[in-house]
Amino acid sequence: MANIILDNLQSKRIITKDKSEKLLHILLRETDWMHACGGKGRCTTCKMQVLEGSENLSEITEAEKKYIKLNKLHSDERLACQVSTNGDLTIRVKKENQLPHLRYGK
Ligand code: FES
To answer: Can you give the three-state secondary structure of the chain, one letter per residue?
Structure first.
């Protein structure tokens, strides 16, 4: 079981039991989350900033490596459609990936 805290979305807490499920699917059950390419690793709109728990995330994928190389994914960022977690996590939605109809904290 893992707790996922959305730091700048009212510190919403999501509890998940499935260690293999992609984070994007978990997030979309609980809130709205940008995912322009539909979770295929072809954009970076599902990007999340990982504040705590990065050690709990699955390995960096080839898609993520490509965006790291292009400097579109920084060391504290991961693509929600590419990763799963086996432990607790605190994440934030980056400013450029915030949806206009949701209220984000600072
Ligand atoms: S939704 Fe496009 S890379 Fe994740």
So the answer is: CEEEEECCCCCEEEEECCCCCCHHHHHHHHCCCCCCCCCCCCCCCCEEEEEECHHHECCCCHHHHHHHHCCCCCCCEEECCCCCECCCEEEEECHHHCCCCCCCCC
